[in-house]
């Protein structure tokens, strides 16, 4: 079973590689080549999550098996280069925390890694007073989130890439 820990700045390059490999490989099963290429515009590492100590790494030995986390900030999704970043701190009494940037190594899917990261993220958000979590899922991640109790709020497009906005009560 993978060991879960908080990501540190020294993980950044490995995380970027994992995110790109996961996106390139797993989304290619569901999206066109153009959509996968377009997804790389916003499916990148958000180092603010590492700085905030809200981003997890699942490791098997020295190998990264998966990553993901949560945020107390208003950014919905997107990495350091995304134009939609919003560093405003959320109000736990009236706003949902964000589940962010969940990726699994393509060779290690369906082993519970994503669920482990998701449950740890929800527990951390709950411990800071949040009663709901909001996420923006890819079509690849949507089945996991549904199985974990998330409900769909809307379906959107980021360019041509389909995104599913989902929410869950965690109180």
TrEMBL record:
Residue span, N-acetyltransferase domain: 2-171
Q: Enumerate the UniProt keywords alphabetically.
A: Acyltransferase, Transferase
**Record has Transferase as a keyword:** yes
SUPFAM superfamilies associated with the record: Acyl-CoA N-acyltransferases (Nat)
Q: Name one GO molecular function term.
A: acyltransferase activity, transferring groups other than amino-acyl groups
**InterPro entries, sorted:** Acyl_CoA_acyltransferase (IPR016181), Bact_Acetyltransf (IPR050832), GNAT_dom (IPR000182)
Q: What is this protein called?
A: GNAT family N-acetyltransferase
């Amino acid at each position: 079973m993978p060991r879960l820990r908080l990501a540190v700045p020294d993980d950044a390059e490995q995380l970027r590689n994992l995110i790109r490999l996961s996106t390139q490989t797993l989304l290619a099963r569901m999206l066109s080549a153009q959509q996968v290429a377009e997804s790389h515009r916003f499916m990148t590492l958000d180092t603010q999550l590492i700085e905030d100590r809200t981003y997890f790494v699942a490791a098997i030995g020295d190998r990264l098996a998966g990553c993901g986390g949560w945020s107390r900030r208003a950014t919905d999704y997107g990495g350091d280069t995304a134009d939609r970043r919003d560093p405003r701190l959320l109000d736990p009494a009236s706003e949902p925390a964000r589940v962010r940037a969940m990726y699994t190594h393509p060779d290690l899917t369906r082993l519970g890694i994503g669920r482990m990261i998701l449950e740890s993220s929800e527990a951390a958000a709950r411990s800071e007073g949040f009663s709901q979590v909001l996420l923006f899922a890819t079509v690849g991640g949507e089945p996991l989130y549904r199985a974990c109790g998330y409900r769909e709020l809307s379906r959107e497009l980021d360019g041509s890439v389909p995104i599913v906005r989902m929410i869950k009560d965690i109180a």
